[in-house]
Amino acid sequence: MFVTTVTHSSEACPGNADIEGILNELAVIRTNIVSELALSQPRLDEVHANNRDSARNLLHYMALRRHDLRPLQLRLAKLGLSSLGRAESHVLTTVDAVLGVLHCMVHRDWYHSSEEVPVMDFLHGERLLAEHTDALFGPSTTAGKVRIMVTMPSEAADDYLIVHNLLLQGMDCMRINCAHDNAASWSRMIEHLKQAEVSLERSCRVVMDLAGPKPRTGPMEPGPMVVRISPDRDVYGHVTAPARIWLTPEHFPQLPPSPASACLPVPSTWLKHLRIGEWVTFTDARDAKRVLKVVDVTDHGCWAEVTETAYVVPGIILSHEHVGSFDDREGRVGALLPGENFLSLQHGDLLILTRDLKPGRPASYDKCGKLLTPAVIGCTIAEVFDDVRAGESIWFDDGKIGGLVEKVETARVLVRITQDHLKAMKLRAGKGINLPESDLHLPAMTAKDIKDLSFITQYADIVELSFVNNAQDVESLQQCLGNIGGRQLGIVLKIETRRGFENLPDILLTAMREPCFGVMIARGDLAVECGFERMAEVQEEILWFCEAAHVPVIWATQVLETLAQKGVPSRAEITDAAMGRSAECVMLNKGPYVLSALRVLDNILRRMQAHHAKKRSMLRELHLAHLFPYISGK
């Protein structure tokens, strides 16, 4: 038996009746926590030995959070006691500590059996989380360091310096997205990493992300064969640099040796007569007169420049006149590559989503603007049609376009666009489709994912499972890995659907059968699925449950996105990056300025380490506090 005995002064404690009420309420909560744990013993028996204490604490936390603790928290705070706000990693210990103090305040000893359920101390939970983090991401040279994961661009397969510089700058995990590139490219990326690890004497984990069953829009009919050619202009519309056009033989087209505004195929017999300094005239698709100046001639083509915007289509006649000659020579522009087509959608429009992958087409209208046929596009995963119901919401392109399912037919779904925009939105091929209210019965892994697993088990340290919806999805991955055999991989479960979030406790307990796993908060799809306005709340809840389970978390999607893509961060994303300190790892996506983003992120996380750890504020000495004259004496 465990006994708390404290000697008190004879003076009665103020507010004794209220203290008794708080004590009784908290004692009932403790009884519920202990009794509900016994009901879950079958699930505990399935958990790996490494996670047994963590599973118990997770069950304690779920029992605790079945109560609305807010009134109790305020009453505890008035007494100067812990309000249970940081109990995640050691739930029962926190409750017992508060109960012990409350018993002391009413001058009573408190007895409870130390054998009714194992209780971890305050430091044990933090130790377990640190151990699980090291096991998944590798040991850190700095205590408490948040790891940084970087998604590889395709260029990393052929450019060793990309990988070398990222590792030099502080990358802890190299992420390869199996939705892109191929096994040969992945192999070269990993070889570059091994070479950089030897060169820099640093280690880095290889993380490979299974693409998963993501519904997307199907292909589109080819767009019109038209090229818009436009020079660079300043804010006043003055031309600052002409547009450069590459003229190439239409039967043997050659890629331009340097970036070009446009590539025009023309007859080789016409092309060979062009000379530097000559002028070429034409009438563009808008009947506008335009002039090209030939500025360079090579064996494979000619360079020309234009200082006015032009729209060029196949068949346009190009005319030029030799210097010293009156003979006009004409050549016709050959076939151009079709432009990318898209659907133009706005509030109230009807969109037809089809089972097949026939090329989609935009809506058609008569001369008076009356709708003849609505826009049509296919869906890459036809199985979703079996689970969609009328009245459910549907989102396209990361939530940019929203609508409601109006009618479900055998071969198609009718969608009414409901989201308002100031102008029509463009929906292109290959854009994501989210059905947050539909009970989709998609397999956890596609045939491609299973094939990719064979490569991953040989070369990666961690596998990421996308679109985890329930415990059965986790079991599917565990079974596939068991069938393949080989070395033990770390597992990361990507929570990016509403069902995945709602089933998180069950998912965590199932994953605890493995010795080493983590969770990624994949905020892109998750924001669409749960609603953007709920995103802050949802990501906090995931962090709390994972801390209760001592599971390392990856903070992902759009971290310093503007900086990585454009070279300059927004103020909001700096704050978002600092929030990454609440997780054990932060993921950066690829971009032209990803090296700068990595440098800035590492700086932010190191600075925040002195101020914040999970939910706890770290009260280091503040320079600002010394600047107040009445305190400093100045």
In short, what is this structure?
This protein has 634 residues and is an alpha/beta fold.
Number of strands: 33
Instruction: Give the % helix.
Output: 25-40%
Low-confidence runs (pLDDT<50, min 5 residues)? 1-14
Output the number of helix runs. Answer: 19
Give me the side-by-side strand order of the main sheet: 3-4-5-27-28-29-30-31
* Largest β-sheet summary: 8 strands, parallel, barrel
Helices, strands, pairings?
Blueprint: E1 2-4, H1 16-39, H2 41-46, H3 52-64, H4 70-78, H5 91-105, E2 110-112, H6 122-137, E3 147-151, H7 160-169, E4 173-177, H8 183-200, E5 205-209, E6 227-229, E7 232-233, E8 239-241, E9 243-249, E10 262-266, H9 268-271, E11 279-283, E12 289-297, E13 302-306, E14 310-312, E15 317-321, E16 328-332, E17 343-345, E18 350-354, E19 364-365, E20 371-373, E21 375-378, E22 393-396, E23 401-408, E24 412-417, E25 425-427, E26 433-434, H10 447-459, E27 462-465, H11 471-484, E28 490-495, H12 498-502, H13 504-511, E29 517-522, H14 523-530, H15 535-548, E30 553-556, H16 561-566, H17 571-579, E31 585-588, H18 594-609, E32 612-613, E33 616-617, H19 629-632
Parallel strand pairs: 3-4, 3-31, 4-5, 5-27, 9-10, 18-21, 27-28, 28-29, 29-30, 30-31
Antiparallel strand pairs: 1-2, 6-14, 7-8, 9-13, 11-12, 11-15, 12-13, 15-16, 17-25, 18-24, 19-20, 22-23, 22-26, 23-24, 32-33
Helix pairs in contact: 1-3, 1-5, 3-15, 7-8, 11-13
Care to describe what's here?
The strands form 9 sheets. This protein has an 8-stranded parallel β-barrel with strand order 3-4-5-27-28-29-30-31, surrounded by 6 helices. A 7-stranded mixed sheet has the order 10-9-13-12-11-15-16. The chain has a 6-stranded mixed sheet with strand order 21-18-24-23-22-26, covered by helices on one side. The longest helix is centred in the N-terminal third of the chain and has 24 residues, at 16-39. It starts with a strand and ends with a helix. It is elongated and about 110 Å long. It folds into 4 domains: 2-120, no CATH class; 140-213 and 443-611, TIM Barrel (Alpha-Beta Barrel), CATH 3.20.20; 227-332, M1 Pyruvate Kinase, Domain 3; 344-434, M1 Pyruvate Kinase, Domain 3 (Beta Barrel). It has 19 helices and 33 strands. 33% of the residues lie in helices and 22% in strands. It is an alpha/beta fold.
